[in-house]
Amino acid sequence: MSFGGAELVIALPKGRMMADSYQAFARAGLRLPEARGERDLWHGDGQLAVLELRGADVPTYVDLGIADVGVVGRDILLEAGRDLYEPVDLGFGVCRLSLIRLPDDETPIRRIASKYPRFTQAWLRSRGMVADVVKLHGNVELAALVGLADAVVDVVQTGSTLKAAGLVEVEVLAQSSARLVVNKSALKLKRDVIRPLIDKLRQQKP
Amino acid sequence: MIPEGTRYYLPPEAAARLELEGRWRELFGSWGYEPVQLPALEVYDPAHPLAERAFKMVDKSGRVLALRAEFTTAVIRMVNGEKLNDRLYRFQYAGNLWLRDSEVGLGRLREFAQVGVEAVGASSPRLDAELLELAWEALKTADLPDARLEVGLPALVADLLAATELEEEKRRLLQAAIERKNTPELAELLAGFGVEGELARAVLALPDLYGGPEALAAARRLALGPAAKSDLDWLEAVLELLPAGLEVLLDFGLARAYDYYSGIHFRAYTPDFGLPLLGGGRYDGAGAEYAAGFALGLERVLEARGLPGSPAAPEALALDPETARQLRAEGLQVELAWTDDIEELKAYARRRGIGRIVGQAGEVAL
User: Do A182 and B181 touch (CB under 8 A)?
Assistant: First the structure.
């Protein structure tokens, strides 16, 4: 693609994970171009280009080969269902996807709210359960509190938010952390750059 | 309105599609691959590899039909149905395929076209090498000289996983992790399933065994059983038969459909395009005793190559049929005037970029 003829295009999620990624890449010997201005959609220095994206969009950019590599949480990968390589667990952004309910609620689950509808459906199927899945975009816990759904599947980091909301984590469905993802074609055709990067990122794993 | 994932192909794109298909057909023909044509409507079979993803419909007798979702299975069905099992057959095909659920995006459609070949009835490293060389020629024919073929050996993955003696479900989890080169998860799974020692190290090494000839040397150093060793011998024999200049990439972590490919599996990539351009391999025993082939994605290849420029306008507009015939006989591309209104014709010629208007009396000044 274009991006000033960059040799390697890197898709990163906005926010905390972006800062962690910059550090991890720097430790691996790859200094990513700094953001020049608030409104830049991408940052480039000729060699490298960084695309600043919503996390959920990272798998799409990498799958279609617009970006060669990316960083994204495993929770998002599980939801995206894209055909990517995910060779490195970067160790940061640790969280879990959990089933969340009101305390002592043991009624059958008929409706689940989640930002992860695809993952939730797959989990329900694997348990032989049938329930409606409602896709929400934020404040998912509220759905359980106000009765929009009788359970919620969402990301849990420390659990303190849940506790404050008076909800309980019934079951951990999947563990997540940041992953390096690589486009299938790029891994092979740009392996002179990407292979050493993978090796170094693996070495620095905590 | 047309459904999502389908497209109209206008000039000049439609012409480019036909032209490329024609080039490939000619190439395959010159290698002895004879054209076959297959029905787009198939009887639904739950055992079809893409059964879930195919479009289905019910015919007048209540029988469930499926739209063709893949060519290989269709060709194998034809071979079995017509009992074409007395010798080696080389077939080529071209046509549309349909999938219900394809993620729509660059080069991904729900109605798409493939052009490909199948060699049914024999199995040898020579045939595999022939298919790889033909795939390479097809990419050059499509003006993609920088495209690289990548060869994997799913049979090796299958044989290594069989050596773990785990049940099928666990092997599938390992296979999925290998296919995604998800080494962290693969290590966790192996430990969880109690696979240890040399075998675990060999399985764990698979995702990273990709690249040039050095990957083959590294694969040789793994602790392999007799079945896995003979898979590697076969691959090595194939690679030795390839012509000078055809340097394939290797990836021993290609584990997709490892229970389907009995030997090699290959794809092709071109720089700055993220999706594979073709796919193929050997699938002895998957429906026919011996079969191998590959298919090129027409939309993918055209997308990778870049769309053609503006449509070529005809060279002349003839005012009467006789003039048109004469000019065509001279080899020109000629449109016939549909009216006597010379001003309207001039305006049309200017809009289309047609350089000449010619009648019995000679050239008309534009």
Answer: yes
At A3 the pLDDT is 72
Residue B223: burial class (beta carbons within 10 Å; 0-12, 13-18, 19+): middle
CB B176 within 8 A of CB B251: no
Chain A contacts of B270, Cβ < 8 Å? 185
> How many domains does one find in chain A?
2
pTM for the complete prediction? 0.87
Q: Given an 8 Å threshold on Cβ–Cβ distance, is B210 in contact with A191?
A: yes
Categorize the per-residue pLDDT at A205 as very low, low, confident or very high, splitting at 50, 70 and 90. Answer: low
| CB contact A60 to B (< 8 Å) | yes
Digit-coded pLDDT (tens) for B253-308: 998 877 788 899 999 999 888 889 999 999 998 888 999 999 999 999 998 988 77
Which positions in chain A touch B251 (Cβ < 8 Å)? 188
Q: Domains along chain B? A: 1-147+270-309 (3.30.930.10), 316-364 (no CATH)
* Interface subset of B 247-266, CB within 8 angstroms of A: 249, 251
- Model ipTM? 0.85
Do residues A54 and A77 share a domain?
A: yes
What phi-psi label fits residue A155: left (phi over 0), alpha (psi between -120 and 50 degrees) or beta? beta
Residues A86, A153, single domain; the answer is no
pLDDT band at B12 (very low <50, low <70, confident <90, very high): confident
pLDDT tier at B106, thresholds 50, 70, 90: low
B217: phi then psi, degrees, rounded to nearest 5: -60, -40
Contact (Cβ atoms closer than 8 angstroms) between residue A20 and residue A32 = no
CA B348, CA B360: separation in Å to the nearest integer? 20
| B192 lies within 8 A of chain A by CB | no
Using a CB-CB cut-off of 8 Å, the residues of chain A touching B183 are 87-88, 202
Q: What is the span of the domain harbouring residue A148?
A: 95-176
Instruction: Give the closest-approach CA distance of B274 to chain A in angstroms.
Output: 4
CB neighbours (10 Å) of residue B167? 9
| Alpha carbon distance B358, B322 (integer Å) | 11
> Considering just the CA atoms, what is the radius of gyration of chain A in Å?
19
Q: Which residue in the set B208, B251, B274 is minimally distant from A64, CB to CB?
A: B274
DSSP state of A7: S
From residue B102, alpha-carbon distances to A144, B17, B52, B57, B198 in Å are 33, 21, 12, 18, 40
Chain B nearest C-alpha distance from A64 (Å): 5
